[in-house]
User: Fold this.
Amino acid sequence: MVQRSPNTTDGPKLNATEQYQRTITRIAQIQSHMENAPRSQRLKDKTCIVTGVGSLRGIGRASALLFAHQGARHLYLLDFCPDHLPELESTIQQLYPDVKVTTIQADAADEAAIAAVCKRAIDEEGRLDVFFANAGILSSKALPDLTAEAFMESMRVNSLSCFLAVKYGSQAMMHVDPSKGKNLCGGSIILTASVAGLRSGAGTIDYSASKAAVNSIAQTSAYQLQRTDIRVNSICPGLIETNMTKNMFDFARQRGSGSKLGQLNPLGRYGLPQEIAQMALFLASDESSYVNGQNLAVDAGLSASHPIIPGHWA
Assistant:
């Protein structure tokens, strides 16, 4: 006999259409809250590097805008594709004229480019406080169709880029310049991983392996950089609607199954780039000063449980 879990409380009985409408309403509420939130100074005087900012609906862009909203001194924003960089720069300058913005077309897995932007931050600002290594690619090839070259490309873009961020970002964060208000070394390095890097079921083999490597880099680097006050953490997003996941969302909506997007997590919905940006902001700020070497899932609870039948013990 299957027992009902005493720890489960049924929510309101909604059909698929009603649940989807509830999701849309909740998404609109979250967007409105973030758009209308008052400015504060959580990143006051901080010089920040963010990679992977080019997508108009991406985590990098959302984070760049949020970092500016929270008073960052200077944002160095990188993306492999230059198409939307001028618009992002002008948008931030228009909304936040007190924030310096430098956009750079570069490959986040190019060692020379990453070394150069870190050096530029020191030369121009005398400090580097935050490096958010967010650049990444998503593959869709199943095992029989996955080539060795494609596997290594996922590792290069998703994992090597994070290694370079840690290597050169930490070197820059050790630079001390009292004239710039930095009397002690330190900083925050944030890596974008994925729930696919925590366990199987959320991505292809190459993507999942590359994100598992990112999580390991965060944990290992924290100990490699011990006693420097440089913190390294990774963010593991769940299902987020971005340009990277656009095909999946479009396909579901075209076939009339949009209401099922995100249904496997306890909140029963997908997430927004701005919700991941909020975690990046927390890790970038001094509010997370004792958070280090962690792989932080932002996935509505998806990774909190083994698969279950809702309302029953597994």
In short: Helices lie at 16-36, 59-69, 85-95, 111-125, 148-173, 205-224, 246-254, 273-284.
